[in-house]
Amino acid sequence: MKCSVTRKELLDALSIAYKAISSKSPLPILTHFLLETGEGRLKISATDSDLGIETAVAAQDVENGSFTTPAKTFFDIVNLMTDEYVDLKRQDGDLEITADGFSCRLMTLNAEDFPIIPHFDDEPDFIITQKDLKKAIKNVLFSAASNDETRAVLTGISLSLSDNSAEFAATDARRLAVASVPIQSNNKDSRSYIIPRRTLDEISKFLQNSEDPVFVGVKKSLIFFQTGGIFITSRLLEGRYPNFKQVIPEESKFSAKLSKSLFYSSIKWVTIVAQERNFFRLVKMELTENSITLRSNTPDLGSAFREIKCDITGNPDFTVAFNGQFILDILSNIDGEDIIFEVSDGESPGIIRSTEDPSHICVVMPMKVN
Predict the structure, then answer these.
(1) What is the Cα–Cα distance from 141 to 154, expressed in whole angstroms?
(2) N or C: which end of the chain has fewer CB within 10 A?
């Protein structure tokens, strides 16, 4: 096996495939890239058994072959090179890498030992643009649980398909985010899946704000994504996702239209001193007919106060408390210059809606304090 590839294209491809490399795997083969040459290209594959990624770059002077090589070391070597082209050649069981007047050898393993990455050969279940998929992931990912051993489904993103719409939802039981985007699909049946948070997080890192299509297929316990020269497969999470629609109030008693940037900076300001151990990041909101007053206090540290003038429908007069960091996370991932903030009383969830995209709804549960 041998080939010559441009360094930039190779490095870009390695960066994408590397997202599926497991640094803690007990199986050495899962810390390797699978390299395959043929038909004028070099294909690069990586998997940790749950997530698999394949991509390819154009190659010259190609001699067909396949083998694996240590992913991190190979990536680091290519990253340090400066020549336009990198020459790769397998010789005497090692991978010889040549560029910049520099040459080194890396150990290889047989390609037959590399796990097979499943493929989806049927028609895709639906097609979504890179732009819409990237937006949907950004709008909800922050609300998924990073780790929950008792309810693994909360570490995933719920994907519900109906007609020509895809609804993404994420919750960690303390907050919820829901967003819908259009899709192209010939299947009008309603169906739903739970995609691991990590899968969508990694996918979002190489998606562009473009109209390029992403082809998505589902088969048994696997979901497949293909866009451009990138192919991704991931295991779906098993279980029943919570009925999150029950958490979203059909109607709130009070609502206010606010500048997103003003609301963000105000919450950010008062959370600086919201460091009480039992109520970390607690921010109290006092609502009246013409203002929202934010307060925080930590014994032996200090207190903060900020008043936001605004018109609130419904003439409220009560105080409700939220985790300020949860509010900041929502505001960081919502589109548009303004938001709608809704709440019914001091024990009800807060609702934040995007004025730019009504389908994007975020819910944060209140904190109960004396």
Answers:
(1) 11
(2) C
Query: Measuring CA to CA, how many Å separate 339 from each of 57, 165, 171, 285?
Result: 43, 23, 20, 16
Q: Which residues, 6 or more positions from 246, have their beta carbon under 8 angstroms from its beta carbon?
A: none
Q: Residues 215-221: what's their mean pLDDT?
A: 94
CA-to-CA distance for 87 and 89, rounded, in angstroms? 7
Q: What percent of the chain has pLDDT over 70?
A: 99
Instruction: Return the pLDDT at 300.
Output: 84
Biggest CA pair distance of the chain:
80
pTM of the model: 0.92
In tens, the pLDDT along 143-181 reads 999 877 678 999 999 999 988 999 999 999 999 999 999
**What is the rounded CA–CA span in Å between residue 143 and residue 362?**
9
CB-based contacts of 277, cutoff 8 Å, min separation 6: none
At 316-362, the pLDDT tens digits run 899 999 999 999 999 999 999 999 999 999 999 999 999 999 899 99
Give the separation between CA 77 and CA 267, rounded to whole angstroms: 45
Listed in sequence order, the residues at least 6 apart from 13 whose beta carbon sits closer than 8 Å to its beta carbon are: 42, 44, 55, 56, 57
State both tokens at 139: 């709008």
- Residue 136 sits at φ, ψ, to 5 deg, of -60, -40
Q: Give the length of the chain.
A: 370
Asked if residue 340 lies in contact with residue 361, where contact means CB atoms within 8 angstroms, the answer is no
CA atoms within 13 A on the CB side of 357: 18
Helices (H), the chain: 7-17, 71-80, 130-140, 197-204, 260-271, 324-332
pLDDT above 80 for 265: yes
Task: Choose among 61, 37, 46, 25: nearest CA to 230.
Answer: 46
The full DSSP string for 234-281 is EEPPPS----GGGGS-S--SEEEEEEHHHHHHHHHHHHTT---GGGTT
